[in-house]
Amino acid sequence: HAKRLGGDRQEVFRPILRPLGKNLVDLETDLREAIKKETLGVYFQPIVRLEDQSIAGFEVLARWTHPKRGRVSPSEFIPVAEQSGLINELGTYMLEKGAHQLAQWQRSIPRERPLFASINISSRQLLKHDLINEVKAVLSRQSLAPGTLKLELTESLVMANPEYSSKVLERLRALGAGLSLDDFGTGHSSLAYLQRFPFDTIKIDQSFVKSNGNSARPVLLRSIVAMGRDLGMSVVAEGAESEADALELYQLGCEYAQGFFFGQAVTAEEATRLLRDAPKQAVSA
Ligand code: C2E
Ligand code: MG
Ligand code: MG
Ligand code: MG
């Protein structure tokens, strides 16, 4: 793409555009390599049931340590993957690794309420890829408790193409996948409208959750939580960073939270340790 970018433009732009384009191409090449060699990290961030602070599930997040550049943030490499089409390979990789790990946990650490894992799905995967058959294949390969493999899709992704999205989502749901509405509140659509889609879970965006001195915040939080519950959905708050955040969410009736207060994304080994060491309320209750 670097060539096309620089191609017909005035000479003066070349020194700026060429290195920029080259960096992105390199990043893409290296990311492709990391997926192929399976060095792309698959990490797990706990999603906690506030009532007893037990781990209810994990969000599966990609982590990449570049051989030369060191850690590269998902906010940098996910857009590169989306623009280059590599997101399909990345998505397949995360889906398979995440589902495999979940199946292993469900077998080795049985619990009263089966653990779930949620995988992020980006727009290109939903629109241009055979997501349905891929999810079907993963579900038939791994025996998982129904609804415990969840797919996270953002509000803006779904709203960009509501007719098509709702068809695909209905089929995913029929296969037994759980569906989480990610980053809710950032897309300016109402939960009442979004309820027409078969989501079972909403994840409140962290901008509503973190204490930030905004006096409208608890009011917004309270009404999102109440509406989610009234619509029969599970509600997860993202970005709980302090004990005060967690306590407030619990008092507002929010069922689940995720955030640095409870823990960052960790490796499968560390997550296994968390599951084994965790207080056993969830099992003995
Ligand atoms: P997301 O799906 O909304 O994921 C939540 C992000 O919030 C993660 O950032 C997580 O580390 C971060 N986070 C969690 N708790 C806290 C907290 O208490 N405070 C703050 N400030 N942040 C918190 P991360 O891992 O950097 O990922 C960023 C975004 O990149 C994700 O947002 C998701 O959209 C995308 N992403 C990550 N992994 C994948 C993947 O495997 N596939 C796709 N398609 N997208 C991914
Ligand atoms: Mg997410
Ligand atoms: Mg999110
Ligand atoms: Mg987010």
Automatic annotation (TrEMBL):
Q: Give residue ranges for domain EAL.
A: 24-279
Keywords, comma-separated and alphabetical: Membrane, Transmembrane, Transmembrane helix
Its protein name is PAS domain S-box-containing protein/diguanylate cyclase (GGDEF) domain-containing protein
Gene source species? Roseibium suaedae
Q: Which residues of the full protein are shown?
A: 695 to 979 of 979
